[in-house]
Amino acid sequence: MALLVVVAVLALAATGIANTPASASSRAVVAPYDWPVKPFHEAHPVRANFGDPRTTFLGPPTMHTLMTSDGIFEDHFGIDISVPDGTPVYAVRSGVVGLPNARVVSVDAGDGFITQYWHIIPAVKAGDHVDAYRTVLGHVMKGYEHVHFTELDNGVAVNPLAPGHLAPYADTTRPEVAGIWFRASDTGPEILPEYVHGRVVMIANAFDMPALRVPGIWADLPVAPALVTWRIERASDGKVVVPSHTAFDVRQTLPTTPFWAHYARGTRQNMANFRIQRAWREPGVYLYKLTTTRFDSNRLPNGIYRLVVTATDIRGNAGSTRQTFIVHNGSPL
After folding, report:
1. Following DSSP, what letter does each residue of 1-66 receive, concatenated?
2. What is the average pLDDT value for the chain, to the nearest integer?
3. DSSP state, 98?
4. Is the peptide bond before 255 cis (omega within 30 degrees of 0)?
5. Residues near 5 by Cβ (< 8 Å), separated by ≥ 6?
């Protein structure tokens, strides 16, 4: 299993995707571009968002595995466009072909703008020049029912759904914050909100739904919001005592923190992969750590508060929820 992890990491490294954001001075020249599948000028269902959790656990499907197992844990570095197997895929910019591996085609358009098209059988060779929306790069492989699309800005993966990139794209769905919890540590145990004390991990369950309904077995499965923020209010009068902080932000680039610094244990992708099986048709669970280190409740006087968490999508639609909690530090109850 260790070999599997090493191979996967090396394969990702071979794509040329960097982990650090591009500086303002090194941004690629980007103008809106159409979809890489026909019809080019119409939106297609996106079944996985930029920044979605990608999880492969090396243990069996148990809570112990979810909370402790090693594996492959990554932020999704593109979007998955839902199309039938065999669909022809085209470049969104003219450029020169590269073949990072046997099922990936990249197109270097110059000026730091590179796009990648995953899970396709290539119909081009490395070094070929291809014309946008005219040259077929390849066809979607059997059993995949999607093309993974990545946009690179000088080697850094950026969000293709951000305004000014892939178009047309509209979204009227509103993300949901389904719950807020406190834990004593990354792996538990859970702390009752009636008795929050000492240093705690604050966790929110937040998700969105695709802008267009996805066909097949991937229908009705969640995607990640683009932004998760939080604040703390005093329950008695609503006064903000801890101002708004950002827990997760993939509106432009991926987080620079390790996967388990922004996702909380218990997180798993749609149809999660375990050592002995895949959880077919099971929706993922997206748990966000609101702080990268445990929050010290001693920052607040003993009293009653509300933790407010807001999830926002790439088009600004937002959903919030509040969790009342009581800080009790000092003498034990």
Report:
1. -HHHHHHHHHHHHTTT-BSSPPPGGG------B--SSSSTTS---EEE-TT-EEEEESS-SSHHHH
2. 92
3. E
4. no
5. 58, 70, 71, 72
Is residue 180 situated within a structural domain?
yes
Confirm if 277 and 135 have CB atoms less than 8 A apart. Answer: no
- Alpha carbons 105 and 97: distance in angstroms, whole number: 7
What tokens appear for 22 in the block?
């591009």
Separation of alpha carbons 218 and 283, rounded Å: 9
Task: Give the containing element (helix H, strand E) for 105.
Answer: strand 104-108
Task: Tell me which residue range forms the domain holding 306.
Answer: 176-327
Residues ≥6 apart with Cβ < 8 Å to 254: 19, 50, 51, 75, 77, 157
0.85 exceeded by pTM: yes
**Tokens 């003498």 identify what position?**
331
Average pLDDT over residues 10-31: 53
Q: How many residues does this entry show for the chain?
A: 333
Residue 193 tokens, joined: 């909100």
Asked if residue 171 is part of any domain, the answer here is no
184 and 296 co-located in one domain: yes
217-222 contacts, C-beta under 8 A, 24 or more apart: 217/280, 217/281, 218/47, 218/82, 218/145, 218/146, 218/270, 220/283, 221/47, 221/270, 221/271, 221/283, 221/284, 222/270, 222/283, 222/284, 222/286
User: What is the Cα–Cα distance from 144 to 146, expressed in whole angstroms?
Assistant: 5
Inside any domain, residue 165 = no
CATH for 307 = 2.70.50
- Residue 259: phi and psi, rounded to 5, are -50, -50
Q: What is the pLDDT of residues 296-325, one digit of tens each?
A: 999 999 999 999 999 999 999 999 999 999
Residue with structure tokens 């098209």?
A: 117
Judge whether residue 11 has pLDDT over 50.
no
Report CA dihedral (137, 139, 140, 141) to the nearest 10 degrees.
-120
Task: Assess contact for 36 and 117: CB atoms under 8 A.
Answer: yes
Strand bridging mode 227-234 / 199-207: unpaired
